[in-house]
Predict the 3D structure of the following.
Amino acid sequence: MPHLPESLGRYPLVLRSFDVKDLKIGEILMDYNNYELHYVRRDTGELISVARDIFNYIMALRTQNTFVDVIDADTLDTPVSKETVYPAISDRRYNHMYFVIKKRVVQVVDDSV
């Protein structure tokens, strides 16, 4: 059985500030200006923001699973206006981005030059 101190309240955990010069591998540091946690990567020794790392991971997952739907709004029977939303909010699906074409311009390219 491991030894446990009688009162666990006697040993406060105080993290060092993230702008120290002597970083230790695997250490967790605190930015006391905005209360953000940082850690030192074990493989590179780089100082990484925990919140930014989690955010980047979530965004990478969302982008890998995103579908792009092209909607030809200029060919629909209903008139196109700036206020019209395609598709309707109730018809939208999870993880889908919508590229709405409201007006087309045909350009003729002259290859004889």
